[in-house]
């Protein structure tokens, strides 16, 4: 979910400019076009829906397997904050949504955006796991305490 309070007031214009003027409507990492409809195979390779339509059933099954049951994907570009270091040498921060220097922004498809955010996802997961573990230990402590009486 986007928290627009974290973004500059002209974020919509900036985002539009990055995606459709600078990037020309294509993912700046993998080149897929915004609005493209298709599927990815098991290795992540993209196939446009028109090309899939020309394949045999065997071919499509071999490439996409069970994922064929799902709706095809529509590419939607979003703008990623990279977190590049500041000219002053200060460390960049990908969480700082106010940092809209062009070099800090990248227009990305869903897959590339996910990849870009992976270190954040991993960090969040670690935090969640640590919290769960702490809660478990607390709960166990309580149980043994209750059992001790
Ligand atoms: Zn991409």
Structural overview:
The chain is an alpha+beta fold and 149 residues long. Helices cover 43% and strands 11% of the residues. It is built from 4 helices and 5 strands, in the order αββααβββα. The protein has a 3-stranded antiparallel beta sheet with strand order 2-1-3. It has a two-stranded antiparallel ribbon with strand order 4-5. A hairpin with a 5-residue loop joins β1 and β2. It is flat. The relative contact order is 0.14. Bound molecules: zinc ion (ZN). Zinc ion (ZN) is lined by residues 27, 29-30, 32, 108-109, 111-112.
Radius of gyration: 22 Å
Distance linking N and C termini:
47 Å
Helix content: 40-55%
The low-confidence runs, each spanning 5 or more residues with pLDDT under 50, are: none
Query: Strand percentage, roughly?
Result: 5-15%
Strand order in space, largest sheet: 2-1-3
Structure summary:
The chain has 149 residues and is an alpha+beta fold. The protein contains 4 helices and 5 strands, in the order αββααβββα.
Write the layout of secondary structure elements.
Layout: H1 11-22, E1 37-40, E2 46-48, H2 49-53, H3 57-64, E3 73-74, E4 78-81, E5 105-108, H4 110-148
Antiparallel strand pairs: 1-2, 1-3, 4-5
The protein binds zinc ion.
Task: Give descriptors for this structure.
two-stranded antiparallel ribbon, alpha+beta, about 150 residues, three-stranded antiparallel beta sheet, binds zinc ion, 5 strands, single chain, 4 helices
């Amino acid at each position: 979910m986007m928290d627009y309070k974290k973004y500059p007031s002209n974020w919509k214009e900036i985002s539009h400019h990055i995606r459709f003027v600078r990037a020309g409507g294509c993912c700046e990492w993998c080149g897929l076009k915004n609005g493209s409809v298709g599927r990815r195979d098991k290795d992540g390779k993209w196939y446009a829906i028109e090309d899939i339509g020309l394949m045999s059933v065997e071919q499509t099954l071999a490439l996409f397997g069970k994922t064929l049951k799902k709706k095809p994907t529509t590419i939607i570009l979003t703008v990623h904050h990279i977190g590049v270091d500041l000219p002053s040498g200060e460390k960049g921060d990908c969480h700082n949504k106010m940092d809209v220097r062009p070099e800090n922004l990248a227009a990305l498809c869903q897959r590339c955006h996910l990849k870009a955010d992976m270190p954040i996802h991993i960090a969040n997961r670690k935090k969640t796991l640590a919290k769960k573990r702490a809660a478990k230990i607390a709960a166990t402590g309580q149980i043994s305490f209750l059992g001790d009486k």
